[in-house]
Amino acid sequence: MIKRSGSSRVAPADDVFAARKRKPVPHEFVLDALAPLGPETRPMFGCLAVYVEDKIVLILRDKPAPAQDNGVWLATTEEHHAALRPEFPNMRSIEVLGSGVTGWQVLPAEAPDFEEAALRACALIEAGDPRIGKVPGQRRKRGEAPAKRAAAKKAPAKKAVKKAPAKKAPAKKAPAKKAAAKRGEKATAKRGS
Residue 156 half-sphere exposure, CB side, CA atoms within 13 Å? Predict the structure, then answer.
């Protein structure tokens, strides 16, 4: 209820001060299943990233377009795809990440076994399965090239080495002076004979 003071000024409407409505959590049952692990969520790519301890484990996506990538994204690597396929027969690469095989895999929301597969993924995460979850890399500074950062990581620290002062090479006589000196020697030799 809006209270009015004795003045003629009208208080602003309640909706101005109302908290901004949050987007609904996509596939919230996944967070309920992971609740014993105390997952953290962060917005990412317009979706909701799910972290357990220091690892990103899932991304929950439910967007209007492209709808074929809606569902639960598994943070995994290509080396684990073959081992995960029997557990998740409908698992596939995420199309919005480009053509070809991607490390991230999606359990599509349109699959008939979606909820069952998502809950199975949660059980694997709870069991500490190493096939699901990635420790995110360090963020690079604005404008820093990825190759530069990788080179800096790989390059061992160089130890400072004191160099001895450089010795100067003896000065060479100019060719004209040498030729004149030789001519003088020849002339002296002719006179003496």
Answer: 3
Tens digit of each residue's pLDDT (9 = 90 or more) over 145-163: 655 555 555 555 555 555 5
Instruction: Report which of 102, 113, 109 is spatially closest to residue 66, judged by C-alpha positions.
Output: 109
Torsion of CA 92, 97, 98, 102, to 10 degrees: -50
Give the CA count within 13 Å in the CB-facing half-sphere of 6. 0
Residue with tokens 């040498």: 178
Based on the number of CB atoms within 10 Å of its own CB, is 30 exposed (0-12), middle (13-18) or buried (19 or more)? buried
Give the Cα separation of 189 and 187 in Å (integer): 5
Distance CA(60)–CA(24), nearest Å, equals 11
